[in-house]
Structure formats: C-alpha cells, structure tokens
Fold this sequence. Notes:
- This protein folds into 3 domains: about 25-30 and about 180-250, Alpha-Beta Plaits (2-Layer Sandwich); about 40-175, no CATH class; about 255-365, no CATH class.
- Helix 1 packs antiparallel against helix 7 (about 330-340).
- It has 8 helices and 25 strands.
- The chain is about 25% helix and about 35% strand.
- The radius of gyration is 33 Å and the shape is flat.
- A hairpin with an 8-residue loop joins strand 4 and strand 5 (about 105-110).
- The chain has helices spanning about 1-15, 20, 25-30, 60-70, 195-215, 240-245, 330-340, 345-360, and strands at about 25, 30, 40-45, 90-95, 105-110, 125-130, 135-145, 150, 155-160, 165-175, 185-190, 220, 225-230, 250, 255-260, 265-270, 275, 280, 285-290, 295, 305-310, 310-320, 325, 360, 365.
- With about 375 residues, the protein is α+β, with helices and mostly antiparallel strands.
Amino acid sequence: MNRLAGLLxxxxxxxxxxxxxxxxxxxxxxxxxxxxDNQLVGYGLVIGLAGTGDSFKNSPFTEQSxxxxxxxxxxxxxxxxxxxxxxxxxxxxxxxxxxxxEGSRLDVEVSSLGDASSLIGGILVMTPLVAADxxxxxxxxxxxxxxxxxxxxxxxxxxxxxxxxxxIPNGAIIEKDHTADINRIGSVNLVLQxxxxxxxxxxxxxxNAYAKKRYKKAIAQEMDYRxxxxxxxxxxxxTRLIAEIGELQVEADINARIVIDEKNGTIVIGSNVRILPxxxxxxxxxxxxxxxxxxxxPAALSDGVTAVEPSTTxxxxxxxxxxxxxxxxxLGQLVSGLNQMGLKPPDILAILQxxxxxxxxxxxxxxx
Length: 368
C-alpha cells in the first residue's frame, strides 16, 4: 500500500506541470479588506420540552429568566413557586454576512446552558442577537431541529446524536440594515489568506497586466507580504472591478513545509520541499524474554525433594533496515523514496526529524 501511494504521488507530480499546480484564481486566495462576517450571540429560553428541561435547583438562572419573561407579559410569579422542567436556558449563535438587508433571514444554532437532558421538541422564544458592538441586529425564534434521538425507560436509555444542541433554519430575521455602498470608495485592499511576498507581487503584476489592456493603466500595488492595494479606475464600479479581478489566474507561492500529525499518522509534504543527497538507514531492535522452568528430580532412595529451577533465555535481534540514498529534488521523488523503503508514518516522522537535524531537509518541519 505504501509503495502504491508513493508511485501514485510520483506519477501525479510528473504528469502535472508546476504552473498548473500553482495557478489559481485571485478570489480563491484573497479576501477584500473590510468585507467580512460578524458573529451574533444571544441568551434565550426554549419552552415546550417534555420534562427534559433545566431543574431550577441546579440552574437558578433559568427560573430567573422565566420569571422576568412572565413579568414583562404582565404575569407575576413568586420566587421558588415554579417547578416546571419544560423550560431550558440556551445560548443562541449565528453569523451575520456582509451586505444583508433588513428582513433577511439567518440560520441559528441553539445550545443548552443548564442541565437540560434534551432540547427535542422545544421552541425558542423570541431572542435578540447582538454583535460585538452591543447592538441587536437580528431576532431569533422558532421550533428546534436537533437531528438526535433520545429515549429512556426505567432500566435503560439510548441517545443518538447530541440532543442538547439544535438548529433553526432561517430562524432569525434581520432587524437592522447592514448594507453599504462600496461603489463610492476610491480603492480596495486585497488581503492574502496565506501571506507571502512572492504571491503578493505576482497578484499585483497579474492585475496590472490585465488593467493596462482593460483600463489603459496600472491600478495595483503590493503594500506588504499580505496586502495588495487597488485603485478604482474612473467610471468603474467597485463591484464589477472586484468580480473581474477575482477571475484572473495567478501563481501562488508557498513556503517549503512538511506537516505531520502524530495522532492519526497524516503526513503532508508541500510541493516546494527539497532534500539534499543523504543516506538513511532505519532498523528496529527486538528483545525476546523466554521463561522455561526446569523440574529437578532427586535420586531414588534419597532424602531429596522435587524442585523447580528457573531458566530464562534472553535473545536480542536487530533487524537491519536497508540503507537508502535519498536525493529528492522533487516532491514526487521524495515521497517515492520514503515509501519504497516500506516505512510507516511513525518511521517516516523519525527519519524526517533526523534529516532535518542533519541539515539536508530544505523545508520547515511542523509536528502536531
């Protein structure tokens, strides 16, 4: 299996030219500065639960919230007089995308805060959702969908999924307009998702080559290794400008890096990884301990007694691994060379760490 994976990797990288591997759309590796999502959060109550809600003794905040809600509705309730387990306090979260208008709807996530055992069948009561600035931008309400199963009897119970978390599709309505007219601004900044000086200059060059043909002048300037500034040409809408630029193909550069996840044995090797010629020998030592007790019988007509004498055999074997010369100017040859040695991920990790320590590995080694 390891040999097959190495051969597949080698053949893949030999068939694909370097430009085809690196070329990608600008919109896939950058974002427009200032155009982003915002997190919303709220505190609310879920009602209508079949006895699976919070116990007011262990979750006193649920009782306080319930009495406050009833008080706003004109119903007075004395403290400690409520014993219902059909109510649960929950945290409600959602994501507010940019340029959403008043009246639009959002999906919301609902999670229990108290000791409720299940939110199945519950209904979220009107809950304001606020952003980091403290302003309420949406209001959530509606029946919960848990996609979970919970059933119990006197002697057994079964739970499938997470019944204390739920979702309300289109459960929130935008109450505060979040639109903006970006077509009035004179410039926009593109922010690279993976910051790199070479990638930033490549993006600026590709945009300028396109702009000189389209607008008769250069409009892009790399500001640093993460930001590319674009000046909006006269009589061109920012929306159309970003749409056209986003479809341009550019060669994105990345640092040479090897990422190894020790927990699940995953090894990811970047395409720019290079290794200088190095000889690698890898073997393992096995120690075998064998106990073979011997029974000692006394001679006939003697006063001796039968005894058990211990006998221990210790054998040490060393499996000499093959000595391989790795000279991988390309990723395909490096992967193929490691796999042809019949190595597993833990062995590859040990070898890569040793090669890195020797100075032959021309890449950053990241171990998680």
